[in-house]
Amino acid sequence: MIDGPANSAPSRRGLIIAIDGPAGAGKSTVARHLAERFGLLNLETGAMYRAFALKAQRSAVAVDDAVALSQLAAETTLALEPQPDGNRVLLDGQDVTALLRSPAVTDAASRVSVHPQIRAWMVRRQQELGSRGGVVMEGRDIGTVVFPHADVKIFLDASPEVRGQRRFEQTGTTASQHTHLPDEVAKELRARDERDRNRAISPLRPAEDAVILDSTYLTLAEVLDHAEAIVREALAR
Ligand code: DC
Question: Which atom of ligand 1 is nearest to the CA of 47?
Fold first, then answer.
């Protein structure tokens, strides 16, 4: 996958679409839709932070131990394999996809992501994965840090209440997470939002040239239509 320097002018390298936004805004759904519509690979960078958080848990490394986490990163390999229904995630060659959505891993992912060395390592890996273009990459810092020259940048947002409800409905379908009540899901989401938006290094924020798509009062079909129109408009320029 490594193919020359990342971050060079994207027009020569194939299309790069960056989708950023807070948890529960619908990034994955939009990213998958755009990937399918425009024949692109969909790469979920959050899954990489989640897989690394899982590794930290398994290795009994504390999420606030920056030095130990950096050492752990040096001996970790992460790969994403885009599938029609999301990414298959390989941690040190092992498929861990089914283990990444638990509340504990979700919380730990947000905590490991505040460390500058971990972010630098992740960003490098993500730039490698997207260096050929032809990708929709979703996360928190894709349009600001990973691919600041992306052809299209969408910042997907929605009110905390709506995001909490959507996330509850999503996780409620997973038996292992059924124990979580809507209030608990909303509380976790707010805590994670706070951390993702207020961390010192590449906090969650829209790139200056991102199109902001607020889905609070839109149906899913409307959101997908808007997102598609944003891409078509950018391609026509
Ligand atoms: O998108 P997600 O919910 O799977 O992301 C899990 C955590 O990973 C999120 O709380 C913050 C972190 N993350 C990040 O800091 N930067 C990214 N590009 C993607 C995710």
Answer: 4
